[in-house]
Amino acid sequence: MEILLNKPGQKIILLGNEAIVRGALEAGVQFVSTYPGTPASEIGDTFFRIAKKVGVYFEYSTNEKVALEAGIGASFSGLKTLVAMKDFGLNVCLDALGPFVYTGSRGPTVIVVADDPSCYSSAQWEESTRGLALVVRIPTLEPSDPQECKDFTKLAFQISEKFKIPVMIRTTTRVAHQRAPVKLSNIQHPRAKKVNFLLPPSLSLGRLIKGEFVKDPKRFVTLPPRVLEMKSELLAKIEKIQQFSEKSEINKATIGQEQFLTNSKIGIITAGVPYLYVMEALKELNLSLPVLKLGFFYPLPEKKIQNFIKNLKKVLVVEELEPHLEKEIGRLAKDANCKLEVAGKKLIPEVGELKPEIVTSAIATFTNTKYKIQNTRYKIQAPKRFPQLCPGCPYWLVFSAIKKAVDTKEVVFGGDIGCYMLFGTPAMNIQDYLSCMGSSIGIAHGIKKATKQKLITFIGDSTFFHAGIPALINTVFNKSNPLIIILNNQTTAMTGLQPHPGAPAGYPQSGCDGIKIEEMVRACGVKNLKILDQINQKEFIEAVKEFLNKKEVSVIIARRPCIWIKK
Amino acid sequence: MDKKVNQFNMIIVGTGGQGQITLLQILAEAAFLEGKEIKTSELHGLSQRGGSVEVHIRFGKEIYSPLISQEKADLILGLEMQEALRAYSFASPKTTFLVNKEIVPIPLVKNLTGEEVLKNLKKISKNVILVPAADICQKELGNRVVAGIYLISLASFKNLIPLKPTSILKAIKKIIPEKYLELNLKTFDLAKIKSSQS
């Protein structure tokens, strides 16, 4: 486990996500929770492997909201806490995040959120969580490479400790899944009372550190009218953090490798992975322009930005997805330099991730420099290769049974988040809607209420635990009759085989004795329930046919483990 | 390696499960052993399930972006022929294509034949090297999956990658789990023998 190497000054190659883990270890993290989701998964998976060895508490929680709430509890009890999730996870836990920013953290707390521009591993929508960071006013840092992933995570813990507020690290796929050499510092042992008290991480300590919840209702209870005082306190805190941001070295103006000392009339402002594309572009175009790289997304170092733009004629803002920085810089220019031309989304696409040639092309246009990509002239096409279920995947058997049981044109098929999203690929084509975690059942209820059509939904077991249960209860409570097929492969397969609450005891990654889905379904009041192994095709086909004609909601639990589970 | 900018850009393409990320890790470690700057990029999750998988490896001096720009690849290693062609936008006439002579069929569509792929690749670059790596590995070692290890080793012996074979060997020993190491070392040796024969 090279990630635990305790040789300060030495460099090792780390994935962005691993570098975040290393940063947390160097900061002395004590409590970690997560729900797996690409491109954030390796943060949790790495902690899962090393937690016991280094004496850190780690859990895969039932969903991101529960993960954050667990983290809030740990923070209230004084522990140094990290919570990790993918972009959509932040939506799920937003309800808990808002109040947490008000109460603030007691134990320093860092929330890592990984966005996925271009939606490589994200159905649903192309989300930028920067917008949510602004809504709840959580201080947010944006690293661009693995070294910064480590350094910014440590800095985030320091900011959280200093200002008693949770701090967010926002990465994207190309940061989280970027590898590069990272310079190590000392790992701080979680049991260390004093900073810099070190223990070799090879020492297995077994016993975890315990915090203490000290009653302080004024601090932890967001009951009106106190809640409005809390908001005022937050705004005052943010002002102080902004002053910190003004002085922070992670917001840095440079020209090439030199400090920004130039009379150039053209400048570039950027952040995150686009910074790397900007530097690549300047090299490619042989340009020497001042570049302001922002490590802080919120609060922005407004004076530093105004200082950067005050003598410029025009500035290009290079950012992915929504133009948050561009809007802020436009606003700041009104005071600092009202004639400044602020360009951004007119040259940089708002849809899809940025790529080096896109940024190079934008900078070339912006500076009237020649740049042309030649090989667009080749008329070359290779047939598209869709992802597909693994050979031997138990979901193939569900698919083949459905094809035999019903006329697929006559039935509406609901999809949900997991490997079975691939039911929507052209080869299978039994997915008529797909939205967010757990929504297959919620939307099914609405369709059943609104139409007379027959409907089958698919939902994986981890997704069912995550967000499917309230929707199932709603079908019973408000009486609709979809057929729900719970695909019980006993793991969270798509994100890398993480355990979930239903993973049976004895599985290497099981956290408990395995909560039985059938008991939960029955307890919700579902009368039509069958637990089947889809290898028995005839039985499965008959069950689908029978249940599709029921007046009340029906559930089939298709129980057959993922082929990759190693018992 | 581009002498002027002193950097090497390599893309590995194939279908999910052909081991692109492992190959990326080996090459990154090998470059690291030689004291070079490194940046890589890869994709995980849904994108890995049997679809097209493309990873980027860059090393040398002054490496910022983890992604390679269009037309800037020095070497495109194709573990499958149609996937090699799909990466054409990263190629220029200076690019070398090192391609495993294998077609993994895509269901329900008209697939390209090996000849069609080759003809198209040659439109872009004359440096197309087709190696029946999976067949060689199957015949000599009884395993097709190590074709990627065979090809990066071969590329090193034939100076298609500016990394020493000894660095590749050390990196293989570091990255490959104990259980599969012997097979991978045999693959490296096989590439060594074959590279001296042709």
UniProtKB/TrEMBL annotation, chain B:
<dbReference type="GO" id="GO:0043805">
    <property type="term" value="F:indolepyruvate ferredoxin oxidoreductase activity"/>
</dbReference>
<dbReference type="InterPro" id="IPR052198">
    <property type="entry name" value="IorB_Oxidoreductase"/>
</dbReference>
<dbReference type="Pfam" id="PF01558">
    <property type="entry name" value="POR"/>
</dbReference>
<keyword id="KW-0560">Oxidoreductase</keyword>
<keyword id="KW-0670">Pyruvate</keyword>
<protein>
    <submittedName>
        <fullName>Indolepyruvate oxidoreductase subunit B</fullName>
        <ecNumber>1.2.7.8</ecNumber>
    </submittedName>
</protein>
<dbReference type="InterPro" id="IPR002869">
    <property type="entry name" value="Pyrv_flavodox_OxRed_cen"/>
</dbReference>
<feature type="domain" description="Pyruvate/ketoisovalerate oxidoreductase catalytic">
    <location>
        <begin position="16"/>
        <end position="191"/>
    </location>
</feature>
<dbReference type="InterPro" id="IPR019752">
    <property type="entry name" value="Pyrv/ketoisovalerate_OxRed_cat"/>
</dbReference>
